[in-house]
Every structure is written in C-alpha cells, then in structure tokens.
C-alpha cells in the first residue's frame, strides 16, 4: 500500500511531528498542516492494524493523536469525517436504522468432503464448458459478516447482513475497527462506488482476555468469538466497541461502478487491490490453483493448521478466480454457483443434560455445573460444563433431561449453546437452585444487582481450600508439584489451614503419611521455598482479590515498591490506574482496609514471602542485560507489548529499526521487510518467538 519512498517520507515526517509534540502552537494551524499529521497517523494505523508491524510505540502514537485532537479542537471547522480522530467512540448511542444492500448478501453452498468438491467442480466445468478451472482458495472466517460502501474514495456506510436484503446500519461501530480505512484511493483503479463484503472477528487472544474479564465479574462469557464479534457490532456504546479490538477481513467485491477499465479481472486481483488500498484482505492467506485436486489437498492441509491461527475459521471458501466466468455461472436465490464453502469438522455436538452439581468457589460464588453424557467435541471428551448462574439457566431455558447443543471452539472452555425444547417428552425436570451452601450449609445470599448466589461464610471449607488452590496455581505463585490434590489432602488431615500455612508445613509429618517419595518431598519443599521470591504481580493475583485478574495484578504491582503501600491508596488513586474501574477500585480498596487481610499479608512477610516489587533487584543479574531486541511479524504466544515489557524487565532494550546495533530480531508470522534487511547483517541473531521465550528466566 505504501511505496518505499512514501514510507521513508512518512517516517521522516513522523520524527518531525514527534519533535513538535508539546511545542506546536495551535495559532497558525493550516489545513495542510493538519492533513500532514493525519497522513502520518493513518500510516501508523496501517502499520499497526493491517501489517502488524508498528514503527512507533503506542505512547508515541498517542502523543501524535492528542496533538491532532488539540489542533482540531481549536479549529473545529477543519475537522473532516475521515480524520483519525473521528473513529473514536464518543459514547454516542446507536439505533441502527435499516438499510438496503446494493446487492443481496447471499450465503454459500456447503461441502464437507472431497466427493462434494469433485461434484461441484464437475458442475462448474459443465456450465462453463472448460476442462480445468482456476480457483482461489481462502479461509472461511468465523465471525460476523458486514458490508462496506465507499463513494469517491470515502468510507460512506456499513451494514450487517440482516436478512440478506436489508441489514442494520452500523457505520459508527465499523469506524471503531482500526483496520477499516476511512479513505482509500479506489479512484486510482478507476472505481467510483464500491460495495465490499467481509467478516468482523475478535482474535482468540483478545477473546480469551475479554471472556476472562466477564467471568471475573460473574458475567457469563460468550460461547465463541463469532458471538462476541456479532454482539460487539450491535453495541450502542461506540467507545465499548472500540475497546473490544475488532478486526475485519474483506474478501469480496459485490458491487462496483467505474470510470474506465483499470479494475482487476480476477478475484485474487481484487484481493490484491483491496490489500494495496490498505484493507486487510486475505491476500496472504489465499492461494490460486488450477484443478480441484490441488484445492482438495490444500483445504485438508489447512484444516490441520486451524488451531495455530490467531483467529477462528470454520472452513475454506473456494471461488472461481475469473470474474467474467463468475458472472456467467451466476447465482441461485440462495448462493453463487461460482463459490462453495468447505466446512471443517464441527466443534459442536449434541448431548444430554443429566444432572447439575453446585460448586463453591474461592469467593463463595455458587456455580452450577452441568454433568452431561460424555461427548467428543473438537478432539476433547466433555462431561461437565459450567452453566454460570441462575439467570443463565433461565435464559437458556435448561432442564434436567434436556437434549443440548454444546460447542468448544479452539482452546475456549466448552459452552452450552442451547437446549432443544422441541425434543422434550415431559420427563424433564426443573433445575433447583440450593438455598444453603452445599459445603458448609450456611444460608446463601445474592447481593442486589448481581446474578450470583454466594456463601458468605468466609471460613467455609470450600472457599478456604479453593483460595489455597488458587494461590499455588500455575498463573499465581506457581508452586510446582503442590497441586489441587495435595491441597485437599493436607487440608483434610489438618496439616494446612490457610494460605500462610503453606510456608510452615511439617514435612516430617507429610513424609510419614506415605505416598511421598524422598525426592518428591524435596521437590515440593524446594518449590515452596523458591515461590517466596515470585514477582509481586503473581502474589497479588494469588491473593484472589475480587475482580483482580492477571492483567490488573500486573498494573497494581507496577504501581508500588511494596504491597502494603496500597493501604495508603484512596479509591480515586486506584481509579487512576490503567483498566481499573469503579468496581475493581472498590474491591481493591476494601481488601487493603480489611484487618484480617492485612494480618495475612504480615504473616506472609514474616514467613519470608517478598511483598516488594523486586524489579530493581532482578536487574542486577538480568538475563538480557545490554542486548538490543526488535520484534517483527505477528507473535502467537505473547502480545507484542508484553514481549517488549519482558525485554525491558530483564535488562534488554527495544530498538526501533534494523541496524548493526541490533542484537536479536524476533520473527513472528508474516514478517516483512525487517526480516529481509536483518538477513543482510551477519551480526544480528534472527530467532523465533519460542527461542525468545527460552531466553527469559523461568
Ligand atoms: S464469500 C456471494 N468468502 O460465510 C458470496 N464468505 O456461510 C460472498 N464467509 O455469508 C461470500 N469467510 O459471511 C466469502 N472468505 C470468505 C468468507 C465468507 C467467511 C462467510 C460469509 C458468508 C458465510 C456463508
């Protein structure tokens, strides 16, 4: 999309603008100056959201963005609809007027195996009179479909699929998707008006983060990223849409008016055009092949790669590549004859809801868990599924004995999609919610405005045990070889009563219990010992403060030198921390003003557990000291900002470009020019994300 020369000029301009931040006066701002800054911002949005290869830090982008906002605020008449500032949600309320698509949004015919594809290819050859067809094969993105209309290079309107003829106008929400350009030079291809179709997605890692946050707040999660994407597009609050980090793949031109003949005449050419104009089309994910045999081989290979992709796909789409031929083949009222979907094996299955058990978690929340007839979904046998809370049971209209549809997408926990009410025979019974704690028999309580019933007996055995299990778990203090079973066993035998008790276990007694070899006992003792110096964020997460997940724990750890400093924080100060809202701030405040919690922290400290932010100490013998690092392409395990933070935490430095000063280039998927450049400099070590993770201290 950006030529070499343009990139160079924009990089130079970026430097100029970065130097101007804070200094620039708004008095003599001209339209040219504002447009120049907008171009710089658009360029960096493209590098970040489309190419996954940013050239400046988030903080630098924010500074430039704020400067543009300042210019515009004082020169309101110079604001244009395509300014990068006009994407941002301002909390406007949408009410989604209905709009008609320029061309009906049809569905696709499905195929499930090689025979289906051979049949379809035979028919396509018969209809076109050819002996061999050229196909474009691309992923079938599993999200929510949208259409976009551009008029004279400007983004004009966007709509959901709706009934295929009319959809909901969601232009404001679509503007929150940063990979959708607000202007695109279609005129350079002789295009006046164009309607493009695509799919809006939430990638797997953002989806998981979002669902974890919902569950932390006691809200049932989305069953899959598709539902989350579709739900997000229909949100009333555009600012919330923006926070959800939606992405869009554009894969089809459905309508076009032109001034001349400069447009591509193949589907793959159209994907190239979209890519060149700054859209995220599946240019890099598609292949063009001749003959159905190669198609079959490719779709089968791709199915094996399905879980390694950062987003969900539910199959592949095979399209006749020649656009004239597409027109000749035409459509039925349901689907085009020039395309077919190849559906991957389902990640849904039906089962029976046999009974419901009620589990008490570490916060006292009573969670109903459905026990279902064993069924294989997505390669895993599922026998129980959390059904979250009473409201959820009512909403999904679940009864014991129901036939249910379950889904397990990717590494997401299994969910019940629905019950088949039409299959009921009258033997089904209602799910009874208990009035008393199933573990300690204390009366249950439901705070106003919440959906979750809680056992409020802080000494309830279930809660104590779950708190200890959480504390030793992998994402918290990571005390290896402790595990759930040992916590339960030691608790039952009265050897362990609470979290600090972990650090005063009597190993002689445990040794005499039997079942522990000398070596395993030594390992357990060593793991407990070394957990005393775990980074502060792990301890904070391990404490199980309500609404404090791993991300918030990191934010909190970075805000202090010693954990007990939080006893001095006001709720307002807590609210100033990133991603800490009113509910979270209140919970943290209460935790650090509760006498029992403070005693617990003091006991932990006296037992040798570090409550300090040890960053500075770790630096003394840092693993990456003095080395420079640069990331390129998309990483699959770490978020780029987390990976960069890890470099800095461990004494390394992030540099912005490839030069002889660079020691390590970490290469993710779809790495581009940086990789090529680095290959030419022999001193640079080019390593994978896995190699990088191995360099970090365990
Ligand atoms: S082409 C006129 N290409 O799958 C045909 N569709 O099950 C336009 N989908 O409604 C569709 N990935 O929402 C096409 N690469 C892709 C796709 C794709 C996902 C969706 C689309 C369609 C549905 C049919």
3D structure, described in words:
- By secondary structure, the protein is of the alpha+beta class.
- It is 36% helix and 19% strand.
- A hairpin with a 5-residue loop joins strand 12 (348-360) and strand 13 (366-377).
- Helix 13 runs antiparallel to helix 14 (483-492) and helix 17 (536-542) crosses helix 18.
- 2-(butylsulfanyl)adenosine (IVH) binds at residues 106-108, 138, 140-141, 145, 197, 199, 251-252, 317, 336, 339, 341.
- 2-(butylsulfanyl)adenosine binds next to strand 3, strand 7, strand 8 and strand 11.
Question: Short summary of the structure?
Answer:
The protein has 698 residues and is an alpha+beta fold.
Distance between the termini: 41 Å
Low-confidence stretches: 89-93, 616-620
Strand content: 15-25%
Strand order of the largest sheet: 2-11-10-3-9
Write the layout of secondary structure elements.
Elements: H1 4-20, H2 31-50, H3 58-74, E1 98-100, E2 109-111, H4 114-128, E3 134-141, E4 144-151, E5 154-160, E6 166-168, H5 171-174, E7 191-201, H6 204-216, H7 225-233, H8 238-243, E8 247-258, H9 267-276, E9 287-290, H10 292-305, E10 313-320, H11 323-329, E11 339-343, E12 348-360, E13 366-377, E14 380-386, H12 390-395, E15 403-407, E16 415-419, E17 444-445, E18 454-455, H13 461-472, H14 483-492, H15 507-512, H16 518-530, H17 536-542, H18 550-559, H19 571-575, H20 582-591, H21 595-606, H22 615-619, E19 628-632, H23 640-649, E20 653-654, E21 664-667, H24 673-679, E22 685-688, H25 689-695
Parallel strand pairs: 2-11, 19-20, 19-21, 21-22
Antiparallel strand pairs: 1-6, 3-9, 3-10, 4-5, 4-7, 7-8, 10-11, 12-13, 12-15, 13-14, 15-16, 17-18
Helix pairs in contact: 1-2, 2-3, 13-14, 17-18
Residues 106-108, 138, 140-141, 145, 197, 199, 251-252, 317, 336, 339, 341 line the site of 2-(butylsulfanyl)adenosine.
């Amino acid at each position: 999309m950006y030529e070499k020369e343009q990139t160079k000029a924009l990089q130079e301009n970026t430097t100029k603008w970065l130097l101007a931040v804070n200094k620039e006066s708004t008095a003599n701002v001209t339209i040219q100056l504002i447009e120049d800054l907008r171009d710089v911002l658009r360029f960096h949005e493209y590098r970040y959201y489309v190419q996954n290869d940013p050239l400046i830090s988030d903080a630098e982008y924010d500074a430039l963005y704020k400067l543009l906002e300042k210019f515009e605020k004082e020169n309101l008449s110079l604001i244009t609809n395509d300014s990068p500032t006009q994407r941002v949600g301002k909390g406007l309320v949408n009410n989604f007027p209905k709009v008609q698509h320029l061309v009906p949004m049809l569905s696709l015919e499905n195929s499930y195996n090689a025979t289906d594809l051979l049949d379809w290819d035979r028919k396509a050859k018969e209809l076109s009179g050819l002996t061999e067809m050229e196909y474009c094969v691309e992923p079938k993105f599993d999200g929510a479909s949208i259409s976009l209309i551009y008029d004279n290079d400007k983004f004009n309107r966007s709509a959901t699929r709706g009934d295929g003829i009319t959809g909901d106008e969601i232009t404001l929400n679509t503007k929150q998707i940063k990979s959708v350009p607000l202007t695109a030079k279609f005129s350079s291809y002789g295009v006046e008006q164009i309607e493009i179709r695509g799919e809006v997605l939430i990638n797997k890692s953002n989806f998981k983060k979002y669902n974890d946050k919902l569950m932390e707040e006691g809200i049932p999660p989305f069953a899959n990223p598709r539902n989350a994407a579709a739900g997000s597009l229909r949100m009333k609050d555009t600012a919330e849409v923006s926070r959800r980090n939606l992405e869009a793949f554009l894969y089809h031109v459905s309508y076009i008016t032109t001034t001349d003949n400069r447009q591509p005449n193949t589907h793959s050419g159209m994907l190239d055009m979209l890519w060149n104009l700054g859209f995220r089309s599946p240019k890099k994910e598609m292949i063009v092949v001749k003959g159905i045999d190669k198609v079959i081989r490719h779709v089968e290979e791709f199915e094996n790669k399905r879980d390694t992709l950062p987003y969900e796909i539910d199959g592949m789409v095979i399209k006749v590549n020649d656009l004239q031929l597409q027109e000749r083949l035409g459509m039925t009222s349901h689907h085009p004859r020039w395309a077919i979907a190849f559906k991957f094996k389902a990640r849904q299955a039906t089962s029976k809801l046999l009974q419901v058990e009620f589990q008490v978690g570490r916060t006292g929340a009573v969670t109903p868990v459905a026990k279902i007839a064993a069924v294989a979904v997505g390669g895993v046998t599922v026998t129980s599924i959390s059904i979250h809370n009473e409201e959820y049971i009512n909403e999904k209209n679940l009864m014991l004995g129901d036939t249910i549809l379950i889904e397990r997408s990717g590494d997401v926990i299994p969910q019940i999609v629905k019950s088949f009410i039409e299959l009921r025979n009258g033997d089904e019974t209602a799910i009874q919610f208990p009035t008393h704690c199933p573990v300690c028999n204390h009366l249950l309580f439901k705070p106003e405005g919440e959906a979750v019933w809680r056992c409020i007996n802080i000494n309830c055995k279930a809660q104590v045990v779950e708190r200890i299990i959480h504390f030793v778990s992998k994402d918290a203090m990571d005390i290896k070889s402790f595990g759930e079973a040992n916590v339960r066993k030691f608790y039952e035998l009265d050897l362990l009563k609470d979290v600090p008790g972990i650090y005063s276990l009597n190993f002689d007694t445990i040794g005499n219990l039997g079942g522990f070899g000398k070596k395993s006992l030594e390992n357990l003792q060593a793991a407990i010992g070394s957990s005393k110096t775990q980074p502060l964020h792990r301890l904070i997460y391990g404490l199980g403060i309500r609404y404090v997940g791993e991300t918030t724990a990191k934010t909190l750890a970075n805000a202090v030198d010693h954990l007990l400093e939080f006893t001095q924080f006001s709720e307002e100060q807590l609210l100033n921390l990133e991603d800490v809202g009113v509910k979270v701030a209140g919970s943290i405040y209460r935790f650090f003003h509760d006498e029992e919690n403070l005693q617990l922290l003091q006991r932990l400290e006296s037992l040798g557990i570090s409550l300090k932010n040890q960053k500075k100490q770790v630096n003394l013998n840092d693993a990456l000291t003095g080395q420079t690092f640069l990331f390129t392409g998309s990483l699959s395990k770490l978020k780029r900002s987390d990976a960069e933070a890890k470099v800095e935490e461990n004494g390394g430095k992030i540099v912005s470009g490839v030069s002889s000063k660079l020691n390590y280039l970490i290469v993710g998927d779809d790495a581009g020019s940086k990789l090529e450049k680095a290959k030419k400099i022999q001193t640079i070590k080019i390593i994978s994300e896995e190699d990088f993770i191995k360099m970090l201290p365990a």
